[in-house]
Design goal:
By secondary structure, this protein is mostly helical. It is built from 6 helices and 2 strands; from the N terminus they run H-H-H-H-E-E-H-H.
Length: about 160
């Protein structure tokens, strides 16, 4: 059941990422789009990041034609959004003469937000493909549980939907 539980949780993460895509598309300005893009990347990458219990979604599920895009998002999540990575930022230093003294200034690379926004449809498609694979895997597990009779869970785990 552990794998099934993680599949369900990862599906929710991907659904949250898909929701971020929809919000980005309707956002009125970059002031809204850029933070939503960060949210999209972090939530998309969450299933592919090892949990405290050692579980993560296999990157083998990522279609070959989407692996470069997937790698870009993982690199951004790991190097800029979740951690600070010097090699991603590639900082450069230079001295500035300010009249009353010198100051060491630093410039660095940042996220190519526009480049990522231009690939939003690709990201959306990738999320859909991954969700379809996860949901297919979950359906198979549910079918096996139903056939084995293991779905007859104790009353404490059963939920009844009420109408009205």
């Amino acid at each position: 059941m552990t794998q099934y539980t993680y599949d369900r949780l990862w599906d929710i993460d991907l659904d949250t990422a898909a929701h971020s895509v929809r919000l980005i598309k309707s956002a009125p300005s970059d002031a809204f789009r850029y933070p939503l893009l960060r949210d999209l990347i972090v939530t998309y990458c969450r299933p592919f990041t090892r949990s405290s219990e050692g579980h993560r979604l296999s990157e083998k599920l990522v279609p070959p034609e989407s692996r470069q895009l997937h790698a870009v998002m993982i690199r951004l999540r790991n190097g800029q959004y979740a951690h600070t990575d010097r090699t991603l930022h590639q900082p450069k230093f230079s001295w500035l003469n300010l009249g009353e003294g010198s100051r060491l200034a630093m410039s660095f690379k940042s996220t190519d937000h526009e480049g990522l926004l231009a690939r939003l449809e690709e990201v959306d498609s990738l999320i859909c493909v991954l969700q379809a694979k996860l949901r297919d895997r979950m359906r198979k597990v549910q079918w096996k549980l139903e056939m084995s009779g293991e779905l007859n869970a104790p009353e404490s785990y059963t939920t009844t939907l009420r109408r009205g």
